[in-house]
Structure formats: C-alpha cells, structure tokens
Write a structure and sequence with these properties.
binds hexanoyl-coenzyme A, 11 helices
C-alpha cells in the first residue's frame, strides 16, 4: 500500500487507485508508486484484469507542475526516464487494463490512461494534452501513444493546441471506448473487464503482447510475433481445455485454469 496509490483486489479485478488530493497531480513519489502497483498486479496470479481509477472527481490533472517548475535540463533528463519507465510498467501489465476516467485526465493523466487497453469516460470528463500551454510537450508517452491510438493529425491538434476535449468528442475520435453517466464510470469499467476473470490468462497475455508489440514493428515481424505466440499457446492447459470443451459441449463453455 503506497501513500498515494493503493491496489485493491476483489473478484480477480485489481483497482490501482490514485489518491492525492486535490487533483491527483503525479509527482515523482506517485510515479514511483504507480510503477510498484503495476509490478504488483502484473505478478499476482490472482489478478485477471486491472482498473486504473482516480476516484469519483478527477482522474489526474497531470504531472505535478509545482514540483517541476524550477527543475533544469539535467534534473528532468533523469526524472523523465523514471516517469516513462513508470508508465511503461502500466502499459506492459500482461492483463486487460481499463482506465475509469472521471473529471479531468490532462497531460500525464491522459498519458496514464493511454497506457490502458480501454478507456471509459464519465460524460463530463475532460481530457487533453495541455503541456504546450506550459511551454513544454508531453513527456510520458503522449506524442507516441496518442497518435498510435487516434492518428497523427488528431493527436497533433490536441498536442499543438492543448485544448480540452469533451467525453463526446473523445468517443468520436476513438480516444474513449465508452462514455457513461459520471456516477457509473467505475462500475462500467469494472463490467468491461469482469468478463476476463476466470479467462485463459496465457492467451490474453499473448494477445495483448502480439497486438502491442506488433504495432511497433513492421508487418512481417509482427506476423512472426503472432505466429510464435500462437504456437506457444499449444503448450497450455487452457488450449487443451478450450478445444476439448468445444468438441464435447460446443463453443464458449470451457473452464480455464489460466495455465
Ligand atoms: C500541480 C495542480 C495541477 C498540476 C491542478 N493543481 N493541477 N498542481 N500540478 N498538474 C492544483 C492547483 O494549483 C490548485 O491548487 C488545485 O490543484 C485545484 O486546481 P484549480 O486550478 O484551482 O482547479 P480548477 O479551476 O477546477 O481547474 C482544474 C484544472 C486546472 C483544469 C485541472 O487545475 C489545470 O489546468 N491544471 C493543470 C493541468 C495541466 O497543465 N496538466 C499538465 C501538466 S504537465 P491550490 O493549492 O491552489 O488549491 C504534464 C507533463 C507530463 O503532465 C510529462 C512530464 C515529464
């Protein structure tokens, strides 16, 4: 249990809960705790899926501007590596991850949500990359993960302008996967990943790694990654259980062990 980041596990779903009032500003301490939380949920076989959540009011208003304001190049060169490593630890959680976004997800807050596989937004949520208004650019993956998700011109619009995007616009540009009433954000995110509890964990891990790694390489290399992951799954109990169950009882009835 960290000072500002807690991990709560219920029914095989872990919630990584940010709790640093008022705005969940992501200072260096929080970033370290996020990395620890990501490591914990990645390693825990009792966790099938993960929710990133900032509470009912705000997801995160970005890196802590008050902490950064007086830093120089040498300080930030070193800190930014740790920040990116912390967020990459979230992106590499080998399980389905959903960000449950209430209120603001700005700057590093949106970049953290971009490390999830899916984003559920409350209808009054606002997201954006306002770093340009501070005279900087996104430094925790925004210039890389955002264009990969929504395309370069839409990403450049957000990064160049720093404007806030409503939940409705985020949905239309593919930045949100669902928009729900504010009070239902957490439950909707939970419902989105609850289906993975009791799922074929090794196949889900392989699917996530094949998609994410494949997006970073050329098509031939991506296909080779897929082929190797695909073949490897024939060493799992879940492949045997899944196919035997189909033959005996039809589709979708298998019980998986996650091994
Ligand atoms: C530090 C922050 C903060 C932040 C808000 N606060 N955001 N403190 N870092 N990112 C503080 C305010 O100073 C204020 O403190 C309190 O939280 C409430 O904020 P208000 O501005 O009074 O609230 P409101 O008017 O509702 O506006 C909310 C807001 C606005 C729209 C979220 O605060 C805002 O624009 N925040 C900055 C967003 C931003 O620029 N994010 C990008 C950061 S750079 P007091 O003590 O006065 O109550 C970044 C780079 C990532 O993320 C990569 C780095 C390597």
């Amino acid at each position: 249990m960290g000072e500002f980041v807690r991990v709560e596990v219920a029914d095989q779903i872990a919630t990584i809960r940010l709790d640093r009032p008022k705005m969940n500003a992501l200072n260096a301490h929080v970033q370290g705790e996020i990395a620890e939380a990501a490591g914990q949920v990645s390693a825990d076989p009792a966790v099938a899926a993960v929710i990133l959540y900032g509470g009912e009011r705000v997801f995160a208003a970005g890196a802590d501007i008050k902490e950064m304001a007086d830093l120089g190049y040498a300080d930030m060169a070193e800190r930014s590596a740790r920040l990116q490593a912390s967020f990459s630890a979230v992106a590499q959680i080998p399980k389905p991850v959903v960000a449950a976004v209430t209120g603001y997800a700005l700057g590093g807050g949106l970049e953290l949500a971009l490390c999830a596989d899916f984003r559920v937004l409350g209808e009054s949520a606002k997201v954006g990359q306002p770093e340009i208004l501070l005279g900087i650019i996104p430094g925790a993956g925004g210039t890389q993960r955002l264009p990969r998700l929504i395309g370069p011109s839409k990403a450049k619009d957000l990064i160049f302008s720093g404007r806030h995007v409503t939940a409705a616009e985020a949905l239309s540009m593919g930045l949100a996967d669902a928009v729900v009433p504010d009070a239902e954000v957490y439950s909707a995110a939970r419902a989105m990943v609850a289906r993975y509890a009791g799922g074929p964990a090794m196949a889900l891990r392989a699917a996530k790694q094949a998609v994410d790694t494949g997006l970073e390489v050329d098509l031939g290399t991506g296909l080779e990654i897929e082929r190797l992951q695909f073949a490897a799954l024939f060493a799992t109990e879940d492949q045997k259980a899944g196919m035997r169950s189909f033959i005996d009882s039809g589709p979708g009835k298998a019980t998986f062990t996650g091994r």
